[in-house]
Specification:
The chain has a single domain, classed as 2,3-Dihydroxybiphenyl 1,2-Dioxygenase, domain 1 (Roll). Helices cover 16% and strands 36% of the residues. The protein is built from three helices and eight strands. It has an eight-stranded mixed β-sheet.
Length: 151
């Protein structure tokens, strides 16, 4: 196997979904004390979310509390409840190309701008006949690390 042309630098986020994110907000903000730093809505991704922050500096982890705009629509951001895990990578295009060449299945959409303004792409939770490697039930978001993290 050739040398990997990218590095995973750390945990960028966890995303938790529910039909109603109100109880999640109560737990994560009111009771656990995380700070709400923003909101995001996307019709195409069927999501309304509150963006929370855990930690500080380079060790900050984003916690996204998500609910579907349409509970019957796709994607189903509330199923499973732990929707996805985001990983910082130092070279997103290289990661996408290298992993694709090795049979990793990516969700449709390619590299695009994510809710926090970083470029992202997603490893599909399930492999397929043509792309047999997936997240084994977990959606994995690869997130381009910002310049200050790379320094």
């Amino acid at each position: 196997m050739s040398e990997r042309p990218f590095r995973v630098l750390g945990l960028q986020q966890i995303a938790i979904g529910a039909i109603d994110r109100g109880p999640l907000l109560r737990l994560w903000v009111e009771l656990l004390g995380l700070t709400k730093i923003g909101t995001f809505r996307s019709e195409s991704e069927n999501v309304e979310e509150d963006i929370l922050e855990l930690g500080s500096g380079a060790a900050t982890v984003e916690v996204d509390l998500m609910q579907p705009i349409d509970v019957l629509g796709r994607p189903s951001v509330h199923q499973p409840a732990l929707n996805h895990v985001g990983l910082w990578v130092d070279d997103l295009p290289a990661a996408l190309a290298w992993l694709s060449e090795r049979g990793v299945r990516f969700a449709p959409g390619g590299i695009r701008r994510g809710a926090s303004g970083h470029d992202v792409c997603f490893i599909h939770p399930k492999g397929s006949a043509l792309e047999p490697i997936g997240g084994e039930g977990v959606l994995i978001e690869l997130v381009q690390a910002p310049a200050e993290m790379l320094a």
